[in-house]
Write a structure and sequence with these properties.
Elements (H helix, E strand, L loop, with lengths): L1 H16 L3 H10 L3 H16 L8 H21 L3 H11 L12 E8 L12 H5 L8 E7 L19 H9 L12 H22 L20 E6 L6 H11 L4 H14 L1 E7 L1 H15 L8 E5 H20 L4 H12 L10 H7 L6 H13 L5 H13 L1 H10 L12 H5 L2 H11 L1 H11 L17 H21 L8 H21 L20 H22 L2 H19 L8 E6 L2 E6 L13 H15 L2 H4 L11 H19 L7 H12 L8 H13 L3 H11 L3 H5 L9 H16 L5 E2 L3 E2 L2 H15 L4 H7 L11 H7 E4 L8 E4 L16 H17 L28 H15 L8 H23 L11 H6 L11 H9 L8 H22 L16 H36 L1 H17 L28 E3 L6 E3 L7 E10 L28 E12 H22 L12 E2 L6 E2 L1 E4 L5 H4 L10 H27 L5 H5 L18 H19 L10 H22 L10 H16 L6 H13 L18 H11 L1 H4 L8 H23 L15 H16 L10 H27 L14 H8 L8 H5 L1 H12 L2 H7 L22 H9 L14 E4 ...
Helix pairs in contact: 2-4, 3-4, 4-8, 8-12, 8-13, 9-10, 9-11, 12-15, 17-21, 19-20, 19-22, 20-21, 20-22, 21-23, 22-24, 23-24, 23-25, 24-25, 25-29, 27-29, 27-30, 27-32, 29-32, 32-38, 33-35, 33-36, 37-38, 37-40, 38-41, 40-41, 43-50, 48-49, 49-50, 49-52, 49-56, 51-52, 52-54, 52-56, 54-56, 55-56, ...
Bound molecules: zinc ion (7 copies).
The site of one zinc ion has 7 residues, from loops.
Family: Belongs to the E3 ubiquitin-protein ligase UBR1-like family.
Protein name: E3 ubiquitin-protein ligase
EC number: 2.3.2.27
């Protein structure tokens, strides 16, 4: 069956290919009924092309569709071969000057903060780079897809609308030219015809809803029984649910299910089954049944295959149309015309209308295709954009209704196109005036918020989940409203006025529904049971904030509009408050002879609401009246007389009282919802249209009424009336409330927005923002982003900060960590106001503290007097009188009185502080008045006079001034003393001013005002001070002892450091302090410099006991971390395939995977550590069982944290005395030369082999002693000798423990201490670790010695000593075997074949292994040869092999510039050696004439080896280092050679041993692999190996974003990757964190990053998550952390998550720091620390990234 079908398909294919596009087109051109003809063609072919099987075959379909379906259309359209037709069209076209590039997901977009009309105006990268905005302040974001480049749109940019590219084209086109001009009549007619038919067809088929029947004209005669079971996407079901359901319903594998789900999610639908109707229907019912339990079921349809086929083509067609109109603007216009042409059914019957109105019924893929077509057609043609906008506005209500029912996100809804239309200023204006868009939007919005209470206010309380969902969706309407209002009109027509005010009416209706919503009543007795819903109301308020502000901005622009709006707003406010005084008992308040009538109202007993948008809007408009001077120009037009001040202030006042009471803790039982509301009320996001406006309203009310009345009402609302009206009223009252009242009074008086600034007219926005910044920075220096967060943003997301910051702050650049900070300029501190109205309580006290500290540092007095304020604007001028009103003076007097008699009343210092501040403000005000005095005006502000007067009878209280004088000396008011003194001083200055102004001017004498005070007073004062000082000392002492207790906890880190120093200082004593005069220090060999052993005493960090490191004492260990490493790797693709069988004896020079050992250097007793480790393990296992939490370390893998520094560790290194001394026997005999030594060794080896064979033979069968006879043991060689192990049991145990750990980690196998490879791994780790350290030192250009931190020094010492001692706990014969094989690689023998050639051996690894395994043979040699002799010969031999290796692989390019010093001895020798090599390799080696060049390559190539060797022998033998190699210098090479007992002319080694060396070199060169290399058949590493670096990163971060946006997921065929992630080690881009790229690793599904680390970094990875701008560290499957990226903005801050969008540039230093972490193998450690610090990191599923 299946095969039949396939052949059938192929057969059809062939017949299909015979169809000729040209012939079809000709037929069409002659047709009388073209639509019918075309439909016949489509009906016949489409089912044959599309949907022929269960899976789409896009390539085949596209090919056939182009050939059979689109081809004829193109022929028809062009009237000739489209291959000629289209280029012609393109050439004739005068292209549009709009860029219009539609953004892909993740593509970078740019907006200019200086020139963009609003933040939605963006440029593509190409246009941006060619524009002037490059040099401006710009913002960069990544597109979420959809939307297009606004380059060329003159309405989008205030300046520079064109980039270079589009400017060019715009110059050629006249503005209003008809694009049809460039097309022939014929062409126009044909285009109309074909576009009309095809567009109609596409719309019909895509909106077709029948599942089993085609539209008329498309049905074919025979109908097959082939159906699809089509699954649609929704936003309700999760990925996992869909995958699970599919596996059940259509019986597919999980992989297939994931594939289906991914496509459904991306395209909106996918067929999940193909077959006959019943077969598909069955799957459908299973899916529906399975998903209908909790939610509505998944949408599934069984569709006939022909419908699916036509729909596939319909989509293809729309894309095709989009492409075709790209050739010519004329064609585009024709398509627009076709699309908008009204159909036979009248209104809403155009194709565009039809599509829009069925938007919510279409699947995702179809929507995005037609949206794209709209964007490239309607939105690119200015004429039709306008017509389309009108259609869109007319359908607005319906579209929104559909969107509300639809469950897809807004991005895939046609309603999202609003941003493209409404943000165009001319369109927005046109739509407002002609289509009444403002009103439409607001009314539509109101339509969807139906729930109201009896007063008609919104009620969110009983929202169901569905309603809440709708509420979220409906919020996008506010966004639309914002778009419409975002550009303000410059000139107003009457129409615009009328329509705006109509919209304003609708808006007021909306606000009216919010006025008083969510009322609250104080809960007494019981705590509330359920937290009431408050978020919805606040969300609404928050979203509307900008709209409210913009409404005011619009009103401010036109006087008529402002007057009307003010009237309307007042009317609505009256309506809201009608019945406000009904039923309330009026009461009369009176203080100081003033009385006022008000109502009895108590916030703590009645309902109160925090939502008062109508009052607040009125307050805003009232300020505008003042600002725009309308109030003075047209007072007759304003209803000012209708205003009732007490009514205006009532509700805002209640709101403030509520805040005060909540802060005072009176509303605790109302729960957190209230606390949250109060928080947002003051929060920077809301306060502009909430708290700020309430304050303005109070100012407004106050400016219109008697201040005494105002104060009495205020006191009454705060429940304080009784206290101030009856002087001896109770002693218990709420001080908090009084504090608040005073605070608000300060604030009200400050009159923030209503002051003039001298010479500038009003206090403008700049001054306001300056003041905000000054006060933020008074708290502490802040980073740019912190400031931005603390400042309110306008609708354009701007705070206006950049324009003023320079004036008030200095910028301090960041270091390697942290961020750049702004610091307040010293001259700005005078503007600091302690009671700044936006300070929270915490901020206020922090700022106070900081400012006082600053003053103390500058040795000034610590008074923080109120700043001098700019004068008030006339409408608010009367505000000032509140300060000298009788009631105010009474309040001040009363509080000062309390302070004087400070025991008894519930009095607080902060109360006094506020009163002092108020007095200070009054004084400042009076002083200013006097200073600005001119002849006309009389000073009516006489505060100083009033406070000098004593109270009248009956109280006869002293004057305020007198009380201040008394308080000046009060011992309990030490802190306020400076302030009181400042007040008195200012008072005197004013007095002087007054006298002067009334008499003749006298020069200023401020500064030497003598305070009244006699000598007696002075004496008393001194005594008092002494007493205070004594008390303070006592207090401090008490505090100290308390603090000391905490000190150790708090300063843990400090303590650790000292401990660390202590711990390491002992071991340091050994090194770098030469005990021998460093005339000539030799690290190895028989001439090795003798060092006297020093006692090494160390302290255990766990038990604090001291212990000497000795052979036979208890073992001491260092915490250590062993890890596999690829940091030095030259081949990242090499992975050990079968670790169980892997032979690690020889390290390949590619160094593809090494074992690195690191340590924090902390020393413990082995048994102390063991106890600690067991305890940790037990505890963790219990914890994991109980809590199921991960920890930052993996106990099961032997990981633990160093008990002192919490450094991640997984084993311990034993500390040992120098091991070489133990086995070296004194040497009396002459030491053999190389040749002799090698002969002896070879004999010994041979003997060993015979013995070994003997043994195995003995074991298997009888005896075979013939060979034994043959055996002639070399002199003094006793193979039967078993050396005694001198180490204590505990040291032996630790040798095994650490050795096994290296083996386990290095090979990734199960621990097995018996394994013969254990010693090899130990030597390897020693060699590898030395190599990494040498590399780091070279990279940093640091000298080899004297620069390592103690911990590394200690680590290398113990690691080397350990590796040298490890053979004592392994099998002797195994180690001997290793030695033999190792040596055989250089000195061939017949027993060992198939060893790697010298090109494939890392010589340093070989050296270390040979030297460290040698004692296993040497211990049986009693001939009197010293161990050092062996070391030296081995070293020389390996060095020579390395030289040959270097010469063989040196890059053979010979540069012309030769020799400073030709024909030196070394060069001649090098040349001779090279010639010898050439000869031996059969002249395969390239001829080389320059000895200079050769010698230079040898020197450069061997340097790393020599440096590593120096480190190695230094740590092995403990010979101090000559001071010359402790610094960087020119003659390093010579000093190294000398230290290593090498001749400066290395080639001498060959010459001295020429006899034996010639043979050896010959054997190395004749190797087959070497020949293959020389013949170019294989590669080899050349020397010196280049150091590995992280990849190069571009300076501009957007390059990376762009690169990532072009990156396609490698697995899901051409899809964009959602989380493109860059490996910083090798530069591979990965598709992270998604299903598509998960792979299986060791039986678990892991993400692309984790999988990549296994090959690239052997488990450790460093990535850059490009979309997030975040560095990711991974280690293994369970460990990871995020790290700050090396990209900073101009303010020295990173932008993780790319939220701020400031341009980012590479910070080289920070990138180097990351690179260093990597090179030092500290990534895992870094992760450990991050996870310890932040527990949430532990819970992340790192393996899925
Ligand atoms: Zn562009
Ligand atoms: Zn451009
Ligand atoms: Zn610009
Ligand atoms: Zn101990
Ligand atoms: Zn430590
Ligand atoms: Zn990589
Ligand atoms: Zn992928």
């Amino acid at each position: 069956m299946a095969s039949d079908m396939e052949t059938e398909v192929q057969a059809i294919d062939r017949s299909l290919l015979d169809c000729s596009a040209e012939e079809v087109a000709v037929k069409w051109l002659q047709a009388t009924d073209l639509p019918k003809e075309v439909y016949l063609h489509l009906a016949y072919y489409i089912p044959k092309i599309y949907s022929r099987g269960p899976n789409p075959a896009p390539q085949r379909e596209d090919m056939l569709a182009q050939h059979i379906l689109l081809g004829p259309m193109e022929w028809y359209l062009c009237g000739e071969d489209p291959a000629f037709g289209f280029p012609k069209l393109e050439q004739a076209n005068k292209p549009s000057h709009l860029c219009g590039r539609v953004f892909k997901v993740g593509e970078p977009t740019y907006s200019c903060r200086d020139c963009a009309v609003d933040p939605t105006c963006v440029l593509c990268m190409e246009c941006f780079l060619g524009s002037i905005h490059r040099e401006h302040r710009y913002r960069m974001t990544t597109s979420g897809g959809g939307g297009f480049c606004d380059c060329g749109d003159t309405e989008a940019w205030k300046e520079g609308p064109y980039c270079q590219k589009h400017e060019l084209s715009s110059a050629e086109t006249a503005e209003e030219e008809d694009p049809l001009m460039h097309l022939s009549e014929d062409m126009i007619a044909r285009a109309y015809n074909i576009f009309a038919i095809m567009f109609q067809y596409a719309v019909d088929i895509l909106t077709w809803e029948k599942e089993n029947e085609l539209p008329p004209g498309l049905e074919t005669l025979e109908k097959s029984d082939t159906y699809y079971c089509m699954l649609f996407n929704d936003e309700v079901h999760t990925y996992e649910q869909v995958i699970y359901t599919l596996q059940k319903a259509v019986n597919c594998t999980q992989k297939e299910a994931i594939g289906f789900a991914t496509t459904v999610d991306r395209d909106g639908r996918r067929s999940v089954r193909y077959g006959d109707f019943q077969y598909c229907d069955q799957a459908k019912s299973v899916i529906v049944r399975n998903t209908s339990r909790q939610t509505k079921p998944l949408k599934v349809q069984v569709m006939h295959s022909s419908i699916v086929a036509h729909q596939s083509f319909g989509l293809k067609l729309l894309t095709w149309l989009g492409n075709i109109i790209g050739y010519s603007d004329g064609l585009r216009r024709i398509l627009c015309q076709v699309g908008l042409q009204e159909g036979p059914d009248g209104e809403n019957s155009s194709l565009v209308d039809k599509l829009m109105l069925s938007d919510s019924k279409l699947w995702k893929g179809a929507r995005s295709v037609y949206h794209q077509l709209f964007m490239s057609s309607l939105l690119m043609d200015l004429k039709y954009k306008k017509l389309f906008a009108i259609r869109f506005a007319r359908n607005y209500r319906q579209l929104q209704r559909d969107f509300m029912e639809d469950d897809h996100e807004r991005a895939v809804s046609v309603t999202a196109l609003s941003v493209q239309l409404f943000t165009v200023p001319t369109l927005a204006r046109m739509l407002i005036t002609e289509e009444n868009l403002m009103t439409t939007i607001i009314k539509t919005f109101m339509d969807h918020l139906r729930h109201r209470d009896i007063q008609g206010r919104f009620q969110f309380e009983r929202y169901t989940a569905l309603q809440a969902f709708k509420f979220r969706r409906v919020q996008s309407l506010i966004l639309d409203l914002k778009y419409v209002l975002i550009t303000k009109p410059t000139d107003w027509s009457n129409d615009l006025r009328q329509k705006f005010l109509e919209g304003f009416d609708a808006f007021l209706e909306l606000l009216k529904c919010m006025q008083g919503m969510d009322p609250i009543t104080r809960q007494v007795g019981q705590h509330i049971e359920m937290e009431p819903e408050w978020e919805a109301a606040f969300t609404l308020q928050m979203k509307l904030t900008h709209v409210i502000s913009m409404m005011q901005d619009w009103c401010a622009l036109d006087e008529k509009v402002l007057i009307e709006a003010y009237k309307k707003c007042l009317t609505v406010l009256m309506q809201c408050h009608s019945g406000f005084t009904d039923g309330e008992q009026p009461i009369v308040l009176s203080i100081c002879g003033h009385s006022v009538e008000t109502i009895r109202y108590c916030v703590s007993q009645e309902k109160v609401s925090i939502h008062l948008p109508v009052s607040r809007l009125l307050a805003g408009l009232h300020v505008l009246l003042s600002k725009s001077e309308v109030a003075y120009k047209f007072p007759e037009l304003l209803p000012l007389s209708e205003l009732s001040p007490p009514l205006l202030i009532e509700h805002p006042l209640r709101c403030l009282v509520l805040c005060a009471q909540v802060h005072a803790g009176m509303w605790r039982r109302n729960g957190f919802s209230l606390v949250n509301q109060i928080y947002y009320y003051h929060n920077v996001k809301c306060r502009r249209e909430m708290f700020d406006k309430d304050i303005i309203m109070l100012q407004t009310g106050l400016s219109m009424m008697d201040p005494n009345h105002f104060l009495m009402i205020m006191l009454s609302r705060f429940d304080l009336y009784q206290i101030f009206s009856t002087p001896d009223y109770g002693k218990r009252f709420n001080t908090e409330n009084t504090n608040k009242v005073l605070l608000y009074l300060v604030i009200i008086f400050n009159g923030e927005k209503n002051r003039f600034s001298p010479g500038m007219g009003q206090v403008n926005a700049t001054d306001e923002i300056k003041r905000e910044i000054i006060h933020q920075l008074s708290i502490r220096p802040m980073a740019h982003s912190e400031l931005v967060k603390a400042l309110p943003e306008n609708e354009n997301k701007e705070t206006g900060m950049e324009s003023v910051i320079e004036a008030v702050a200095c910028f301090k650049k960041p270091g390697l960590t942290g961020r750049g900070l702004y610091e307040l300029k010293p001259e700005c501190t005078k503007d600091f106001n302690l009671y700044f109205y936006h300070f929270s309580r915490a901020e206020q006290s922090k700022a106070e503290e900081a400012q006082r500290k600053l003053k103390r540092q500058n040795r000034e007095d610590t008074a923080l007097p109120p700043p001098v304020l700019p004068p008030l604007s006339p409408l608010f001028a009367s505000l000032i009188n509140i300060l000298q009103s009788d009631v105010m003076l009474c309040i001040m007097g009363t509080i000062l009185q309390w302070a004087v008699e400070h025991n008894g009343y519930a009095w607080s210092e902060s109360m006094l502080q506020r009163v002092l501040h108020l007095i200070g403000m009054a004084l400042q005000e009076e002083k200013q008045h006097l200073e600005n005095l001119n002849e006309e005006n009389v000073v009516t502000f006489t505060f100083t006079q009033k406070i000098s007067k004593p109270g009248e009878a009956p109280s006869n209280s002293p004057s305020i001034l007198a009380m201040l004088e008394t308080l000046q000396n009060a011992p309990h008011l030490e802190v306020h003393k400076d302030m009181i003194r400042w007040i008195l001083k200012t008072f005197n200055a004013i007095k002087k001013l007054r006298e002067n102004s009334s008499t003749s001017p006298v020069p200023e004498t401020e500064g030497n005002i003598i305070e009244e005070g006699s000598r007696d007073k002075d004496k008393a004062e001194r005594k008092r001070k002494a007493e205070i000082a004594r008390l303070r000392r006592e207090k401090i002492m008490a505090q100290m002892s308390e603090m000391q207790r905490h000190f150790i906890d708090e300063n843990k880190e400090l303590f650790q450091q000292t401990l660390e120093e202590l711990a390491t200082s002992t071991s340091r004593a050994l090194d770098n302090s030469p005990t021998v005069s460093d005339t000539k220090l030799t690290a190895l060999g028989p001439k090795q410099t003798r060092v006297t052993e020093q006692r090494q005493v160390v302290t255990c960090i766990l038990c604090q006991e001291e212990q000497e490191v000795k052979v036979d004492s208890r073992a001491m260990v260092l915490a250590a971390f062993v890890q596999r490493s690829t940091v030095l790797s030259k081949n990242r693709n090499k992975v050990i395939q079968d670790p169980e069988k892997y032979d690690p004896l020889f390290m390949h020079p590619e160094l593809s995977c090494g074992t690195h050992t690191g340590s924090c250097g902390h020393i413990m007793h082995a048994h102390c550590w063991q106890r600690y480790f067991d305890a940790v393990q037990a505890k963790e296992q219990r914890r994991q069982q109980r809590l199921r939490v991960h920890t930052s370390y993996d106990v099961e893998n032997g990981e633990f944290l160093c008990p002192l520094c919490e450094c991640l560790s997984n084993t311990v290194i034993p500390l040992l005395p120098p091991p070489r001394g133990l086995f070296n026997r004194l040497d009396f005999s002459d030491q053999p030369n190389l040749a002799q030594w090698m002969r002896t060794i070879s004999q010994q080896i041979k003997a060993l082999y015979i013995l070994r064979e003997e043994e195995s033979a003995n074991n298997s069968c009888g005896s075979n002693s013939e060979k034994m006879d043959e055996l002639q043991l070399p002199k003094g060689f006793r193979p039967d000798f078993q050396p005694k192990n001198l180490y204590s049991e505990s040291i032996k145990e630790m040798l095994t423990t650490f050795g096994t750990a290296i083996y386990k980690v290095g090979l990734k196998v199960h621990p097995n201490e018996e394994d013969l490879r254990v010693p090899i791994m130990c030597w390897g780790s020693c060699a590898y670790t030395i190599q990494t350290i040498e590399q780091i030192l070279t990279d940093e250009n640091k000298p080899l010695f004297g620069n390592l931190p103690c911990r590394q020094d200690d680590c290398l010492t113990s690691l080397t000593r350990f590796a040298a001692a490890h053979w004592t706990v392994s099998s002797l014969s195994a180690v001997q075997g290793h030695f033999c094989r190792l040596l055989a690689s250089l000195v061939p023998n017949e027993k060992n074949e198939n060893l790697p050639c010298i090109l494939d051996i890392d010589m340093f690894h070989l050296l270390v292994s040979l030297v460290l395994s040698f004692p296993a043979i040497y211990c049986q040699d009693f001939s009197g040869v010293s161990l050092g002799t062996g070391d030296l010969h081995i070293f020389h031999l390996v060095t020579m092999a390395h030289i040959v290796q270097i010469l063989l692989t040196s890059s053979t390019e010979e540069n012309g510039m030769d020799q400073e010093n030709p024909n030196s001895e070394e060069e001649a020798a090098a040349l001779t050696l090279y010639k010898f090599l050439c000869q031996r390799t059969g002249s395969a080696l390239k001829e080389m004439s320059s000895g200079w060049h050769l010698w230079r390559s040898i020197k450069a190539g061997i340097m790393p080896f020599l440096r590593c060797s120096a480190l190695f022998f230094h740590y092995l033998n403990g010979v101090p280092v000559p001071s010359e190699i402790q610094v960087t210098g020119a003659s390093q090479f010579e000093h190294l050679c000398s230290y290593l007992s090498l001749p400066n002319n290395l080639i001498c080694l060959f010459q001295e041993n020429s006899k034996i060396m010639n043979t050896l070199v010959e054997s190395w060169c004749s190797n087959n692999e070497v020949n293959r290399y020389l013949e170019g058949k294989r590669q080899a590493i050349s020397y010196a190996r280049e150091s590995n670096k992280l990849i190069d990163l571009p300076d501009d971060y957007s390059c990376l974003i762009n690169q990532a946006s072009n990156f396609l997921c490698p697995k899901s065929g051409g899809d964009k990757s959602r989380a493109p992630t860059l490996c910083l080690v090798c530069g591979t881009m990965l598709c992270s964190q998604s299903y598509c790229c998960q792979t299986e690793l060791e039986g678990e599904d892991v993400g692309a990053c984790t999988a990549h680390t296994y090959a690239c970094g052997s488990g450790v990875g460093i990535f850059l998550r490009v979309r997030e701008c975040q560095v990711l560290f991974l280690a293994g499957k369970t460990k990871g952390c995020f790290y700050a990226p090396p990209y900073l903005d101009d303010y020295g801050e990173t932008d993780q998550g790319l939220r701020r969008g400031n341009p980012l540039h590479l910070c080289k230093e920070r990138f180097k720091k990351i690179q260093k972490l990597w090179q030092q193998h500290s990534i895992t450690e870094e992760i450990g620390h991050a996870q310890e610090a932040n527990q949430t990191l532990v819970g992340i599923d790192w393996q899925h990234l």
